[in-house]
């Protein structure tokens, strides 16, 4: 007790109390700073594996673990066989998985013009720009055997590729692949339709200035 009394008296007389108070504050701040730095190091320098880094923990020596069988990623549950494969009971189908509206055809035309015209051209005749520059030509969509192919065939080819053509599954969504298939059907119809298949209200636009109604008017392609 006497020591504390004399110490305080000495400190008050010499101004040492303020010095010791400052030292205590610095010590406290230093301790807090060390704690913060320690937390940051724990977050930035932590046990982890880089991609494809080997591991001695697992028997197969791989750090990344294989997907559990039967796992389905969110948004990837594909139970609609027709929509995602173009088949019904394993057989290529000529049906579309959803009704095709004018908006769907416009979307299909847009996607076709982006992805398909370099080889197939805008009419589907297989004389696109890269074909004109030496790439092997694809078959025309207007050949009889191609016209008779089911809609699911076009979806399947767009999905998986065929011959020199690579698949577009990673580039074009399944719904858009069907829209492209529908637009291909529209291209085929445009080159092989008869006048009887044209609505009466639009026939005048096709025959105006022709001077006769032969050919298409008589039911010829």
- From the alpha carbons, calculate the radius of gyration and give it in angstroms: 37 Å
- Largest sheet, strands/sense/barrel: 2 strands, antiparallel
Which term fits the overall shape?
elongated
Beta-strand content: under 5%
Q: Strand arrangement, largest sheet?
A: 1-2
CATH topology of the largest domain: Cytochrome Bc1 Complex, Chain D, domain 2
Under the CATH scheme, which architecture of the largest domain would be assigned?
Orthogonal Bundle
- DSSP summary: helix tally: 10
Number of strands: 4
The CATH superfamily of the largest domain turns out to be Cytochrome c-like domain
Q: How helical, in percent, are the residues?
A: 40-55%
Kindly summarize this structure in a few lines:
It is built from ten helices and four strands.
What does this structure look like?
The chain is mainly alpha-helical and 221 residues long. The protein folds into two domains: 63 residues, no CATH class; 113 residues, Cytochrome c-like domain (Cytochrome Bc1 Complex, Chain D, domain 2). 50% of the residues lie in helices and 4% in strands. Helix 4 crosses helix 9.
SSE topology sketch:
Elements lengths: L1 H13 L1 H29 L36 H5 L1 E2 L2 E2 L9 H14 L1 H4 L8 H4 L11 H4 L3 H10 E2 L2 E2 L7 H19 L7 H8 L14
Antiparallel strand pairs: 1-2, 3-4
Defining key terms:
221 residues; two-stranded antiparallel sheet; 4 strands; Cytochrome Bc1 Complex, Chain D, domain 2; two-stranded antiparallel ribbon; mainly alpha; 2 domains; disordered C terminus
């Amino acid at each position: 007790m006497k020591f504390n009394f004399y110490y305080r008296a000495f400190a008050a007389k010499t101004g040492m109390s303020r010095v010791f108070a400052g030292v205590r504050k610095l010590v406290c701040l230093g301790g807090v700073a060390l704690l913060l730095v320690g937390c940051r190091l724990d977050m930035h320098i932590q046990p982890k594996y880089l991609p494809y880094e080997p591991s001695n923990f697992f028997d197969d020596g791989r750090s990344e673990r294989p997907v559990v069988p039967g796992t389905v990623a969110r948004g990837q549950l594909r139970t609609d066989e027709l929509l995602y494969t173009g088949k019904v009971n394993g057989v290529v189908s000529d049906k579309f998985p959803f009704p095709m509206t004018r908006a769907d055809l416009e979307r299909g035309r847009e996607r076709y013009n982006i992805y398909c015209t370099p080889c197939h051209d805008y009419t589907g005749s297989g004389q696109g720009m890269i074909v004109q520059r030496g790439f092997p030509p694809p078959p025309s969509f207007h050949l009889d055997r191609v016209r008779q192919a089911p809609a699911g065939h076009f979806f399947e080819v767009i999905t998986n590729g065929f011959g020199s053509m690579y698949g577009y599954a990673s580039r074009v969504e399944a719904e858009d692949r069907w829209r492209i298939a529908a637009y291909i059907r529209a291209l085929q119809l445009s080159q092989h339709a008869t006048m009887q298949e044209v609505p009466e209200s639009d026939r005048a636009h096709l025959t105006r200035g022709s001077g006769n109604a032969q050919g298409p008017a008589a039911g010829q392609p």
